[in-house]
Design goal:
It contains 6 helices and 36 strands. It is mainly β. The chain folds into 2 domains: 1-31, no CATH class; 32-211 and 223-655, Maltoporin, Chain A (Beta Barrel), CATH 2.40.170.20. β21 and β22 (384-401) form a beta hairpin. The radius of gyration is 25 Å and the shape is globular. The two termini are 27 Å apart.
Length: 656
């Protein structure tokens, strides 16, 4: 790194003539490529999490992402159990999840389960709050997560071997390699993880207010095994043309524990997922850069509770979800701005089968056309950029159910949805250290197939659901001082969202959930972020989110109450120390003001979790120890499904 002032024989005179300019070498592994989001041309609030934090310890991807501002996660237990993300009080179905710009969740699998994915194949993760950049797709109600896989153009040869051991029977092994031959690049990685999840839980024997019969027991039927693999092959045909294929696959087998810790429980859940992308990037075609991607996402899930251990009777259901699509991205670089266009056409299919009764089957098909556009206009002086955008989506649904299912839920009708999502954003430089970002957009989401007609597990269908809509607005002021090696940044933002016909899952006394439309919700909040490099060895990060999530309902018992599952206050802080071969860190995660139910009669406990880590590195080898939940705090995102207590994980890594 160097500055123009350092090249002048009179540094003081140089400083008077022009501002200090910092020049750094490009990072091929993180710099945006054609078809990816360019931060300077998007006003959507964004946080980027690097691979080092994503793969630190044994925490899942969702847990790591939840430590960023405005984000919360909800899980049902230890490793392998479901993990869903919430951004600015949006549900998991209102949060778009993308892999290299291709959406992974939709009508056939509305809520993406992060526990199916391993972080060791990722280079970074981008979290967008209050909207979705046009390069990804139509804006989501809460926000979006874009997972960036490891690339082949950075360090073309090498590899990594990693093993991990930890509490509750946790084991993991990872191997990855990169190689190159002329214009060809190949990257491959495979990861296997297992956990017995035999941690202690409290069984109240179904008598919540009688503590005399409470017992401490080992969690039963909670073991999980997951295998993940990723491969990317690319061919650099010319300096401005690259063709590549990405394959990512995962397989998970897990038990399904019950709130009562039933010793006779044998319920199992299995899922297999496959994502395939074939893309071609062609830049500098006149003033245009282009990218074409053909994609296929497949997921098979099997829920086996033939003994009726969960409480909804004997069940054996299987679902096959398939999405096939073509995404075309084009951008034209002009003297005063950039015009971007995205065309995404896809077909989603869901085949849901009841293997016992055979009478509640579901066949669904959704064909969609999504067109989004944006113009990033740089005003004179390049201190202000305005980004008007417009999205247009057409959906056509065809749903078929058996006579028995129709008798239970009614006969579904073909549906057609057409909606537009206009938006506008502003980014402004307010001097050398201050900047302003503001964004406003209209959002919309149509109900998924499973929400309409797919009974499974503890969730029942609701065929009368209608689309949810809303508007999101936010504004943030950022103070940034990165003129020297000690970086400092503070961001303060406010956001507001108005949502109509909000789709939320409501649980009854048995813990059985059903998706329902509530008249609406009004969400307002404040977000504060700090990123400080105190000394060359010490750094600290912290964030705080306060949000008011009021339901708008015709029922007095619900009106004005907080949306269930959403914490009013959440905060995360971490301090890091690094010196030569050693690195240590300590962190805190805090939540309060959350309810389990719509009427806010069942409050969740306020919780503060502590974590710490220590890493020793020598040449190509490193040893890491991570301690989670140091205070051994009992955490239940869902009633009756506690997370593990205090845990330790030791990792050994060797870079080839």
């Amino acid at each position: 790194m160097f500055t123009l002032a350092s090249l002048s024989p009179h540094p003081a005179l140089a400083a008077e003539q022009l501002d200090e300019l910092v020049v750094t070498a490009p990072d091929d592994n993180t710099d945006p490529q054609t078809g990816e989001v360019i931060e300077d041309e998007s006003a959507v609030a964004r946080t980027v999490i690097k691979a080092e934090q994503l793969t630190e310890g044994a925490a899942g991807i969702a847990k790591v992402l939840s430590r960023t501002v405005g984000v919360q996660t909800r899980g049902s237990g230890g490793f392998g159990s479901s993990e869903f993300l919430s951004i600015r009080a949006g549900t998991a179905t209102q949060t778009g999840v993308y892999l290299d710009g291709i959406r992974l969740n939709g009508a056939s699998n509305p809520a993406f389960d992060f526990s199916t994915l391993d972080a060791l194949g990722l280079a970074s993760a981008e979290v967008y709050r209050g909207g979705t950049p046009f390069a990804l797709g139509s804006p989501d109600v809460g926000g979006a997560v874009n997972l960036i896989s490891s690339r082949t153009n950075a360090d073309p040869t090498g590899g990594t071997i990693k093993t991990q051991f930890g509490s509750f029977g946790s084991l993991a092994a990872h191997a990855g390699a990169r190689t190159a031959a002329g214009p060809w690049r190949l990257l491959a990685a495979v990861t296997a993880r297992h956990a017995d999840n035999n941690y202690d839980v409290l069984d109240d024997n179904g008598t919540r207010f009688n503590t005399r019969d409470d017992e401490i027991e080992e969690r039963l039927n909670a073991d999980a095994t997951r295998t993940s693999a990723l491969a990317r092959l690319s061919y650099q045909a010319a300096p401005h043309q690259e063709t590549g294929v990405l394959i990512q696959a995962s397989q998970r087998d897990s038990g399904v524990p019950t709130p009562r810790n039933n010793p006779d429980n044998r319920a199992r859940f299995n899922d297999d997922a496959l994502s395939l992308q074939a893309s071609n990037t062609l830049d500098r075609v006149g003033a245009w850069n282009t990218r074409q991607t053909l994609y296929v996402n497949v997921q098979n899930t099997l829920y086996d509770d033939r003994e009726g251990s969960i409480g909804l009777g004997s069940q054996l259901t299987e679902s096959d979800a398939r999405t096939t699509g073509l995404k075309l991205f084009s951008e034209r670089l002009g003297d005063r701005g950039t015009l971007g266009l995205v065309l995404d056409v896809s077909q989603e299919q869901l085949d849901h089968r009841d293997r016992i009764r055979g009478g509640r089957d579901l066949d669904a098909l959704r064909q969609s056309l999504n067109i989004t556009s944006q113009y990033a206009l740089w005003l004179p002086g390049d201190k202000l950029v305005v980004t008007p955008s417009l999205g247009w989506k057409y959906l056509d649904d065809e749903i078929q159910v058996s006579e028995q299912a129709a008798a239970l839920r009614g006969t579904p009708e073909a549906r057609t949805h057409v909606n537009t999502t206009p938006g506008i954003g502003i980014r402004a430089e307010l001097g050398r250290k201050f900047s302003l970002r503001a964004n406003a957009t209209r959002v919309q989401r149509s109900p998924s197939f499973s929400e309409l007609f797919g009974d499974s597990g503890l969730l029942l269908a609701s065929p009368d659901l209608v689309s949810e809509t809303g508007t999101n607005t936010d504004i943030a002021l950022v103070w940034n001082n990165r003129s020297r090696s000690l970086g400092k940044e503070i961001s303060l933002g406010v956001f507001h969202s108005r949502r109509t016909d909000l789709i939320t899952t409501v649980y009854d006394s048995r813990g059985v959930g059903r998706a329902e439309n509530i008249p609406g919700a009004r969400i307002s909040g404040i977000e504060l972020e700090l990123d400080l490099a105190i000394t060359p060895s010490w750094s600290a990060t912290a964030n705080l989110t306060w949000q008011d999530t009021r339901q708008l309902s015709d029922f007095s018992s619900f009106d004005g109450k907080q949306i269930p599952g959403q914490a009013r206050e959440s905060a995360s802080a971490r301090i890091d120390w690094a010196n030569h071969r050693w690195r240590a860190w300590y962190g805190l995660d805090h939540e309060r003001g959350r309810y389990y139910d719509t009427a806010n009669l069942l409050p969740a406990r306020t919780r503060t979790l502590q974590r710490a880590g220590l890493t020793w590195t020598h040449d190509a080898a490193s040893i890491s120890l991570v301690l989670d939940n140091l205070g051994d705090v009992i955490v239940e995102d869902f009633r009756g499904f506690p997370h593990p207590g205090r845990a330790a994980h030791l990792s050994l890594t060797y870079n080839l």
